[in-house]
Amino acid sequence: MVVHTDKVSLSSDLLSRRKQNEKIGFVPTMGALHRGHLSLVKNALKENDCVVVSIYVNPTQFDNKEDLKKYPRILQKDIQLLQELSGDILLYVPNNEDIYGEKVTSAHFEYDGLEHQMEGAHRKGHFDGVGTILSIFFDIIKPHSAYFGEKDFQQLQIVRKLVQLQKYPVEIVGCPIVRENNGLAMSSRNKRLSEKEFEEAAFIYKTLQKVKRKFPTTSIKKINEFVKEQFLHNSYLKLEYFEIANEQTLVPAKHKMKTNKYRAFIAVHCGKVRLIDNVPLN
Ligand code: AMP
Questions:
Q1: Which residue in the list 34, 37, 122, 255 is annotated as catalytic?
Q2: Does ligand 1 have an atom closer than 6 angstroms to the CB of 41?
Q3: Domains along the chain with CATH numbers
Q4: Contact between residue 32 and residue 72 where contact means Cβ atoms under 8 Å apart
Q5: Mean pLDDT for each 10-residue chunk of the chain (282 residues)?
Q6: Is 275 in the pocket of ligand 1 (CB under 6 A)?
């Protein structure tokens, strides 16, 4: 595996690969890799000649300084995991200067309103930061395809919109959520949970599964009330939001329409760690 720490050496490596007609896949990550990330890399390796994996904790997508400071950073372990996977990986580990130059700032992005819902409403500037870093990455790497997890489903839809609006010639591939044995969606932030919190956090997916079972026969209003009620009695988990939303528009639904696809989205605080998850409902 080749490790590049600056965009100049990465670009020249990619240029020679492009000249040999290699198909380039791209998996952006913030590191502290787990099986969820690795599933994206494995899919990318199957469908491309070489795969760029980036590890970069992008400051402009954090709305919370403490979260940015405490974000797990374990580069040597990440390198080991990727090395075990394949030699056809180009790892890109830039620093802030390589990405942003002298000033770390975000551009403003609009994604046909997708940015106003859920994570966008609760994390100010988050999707501006996501749009900024992905535009920079796409310009440097010029991948044929890029892989994103459904774990961040709103982000996945926003990336699809970004690519459509900015006309990037890249195929966006969505990959299913990988879970811990207890059902908790894998996340780098899970490393910050205590053993007890990790156990308790399984309640999030258990509740989503109940929502899925109720969905065919229960109104959205009743389901919303049910979820709120569930979390009222949980001393470890504080509900930030729960929404049933249209998969395409991400607008929270009040009533079900047979022609629409719906997903349940949730954000929960477990101690000092913020966790998100989602499930398809129909
Ligand atoms: P992150 O490092 O959290 O920015 O995530 C990098 C990519 O991995 C994003 O596209 C995420 O959606 C994806 N990802 C994170 N956790 C999971 C998971 N449990 N299952 C599938 N994909 C995931």
A1: 37
A2: no
A3: 2-175 (3.40.50.620), 188-280 (3.30.1300.10)
A4: yes
A5: 97 98 98 98 98 98 96 98 95 98 97 98 97 98 98 98 98 98 98 98 98 98 98 96 98 96 98 98 97
A6: no
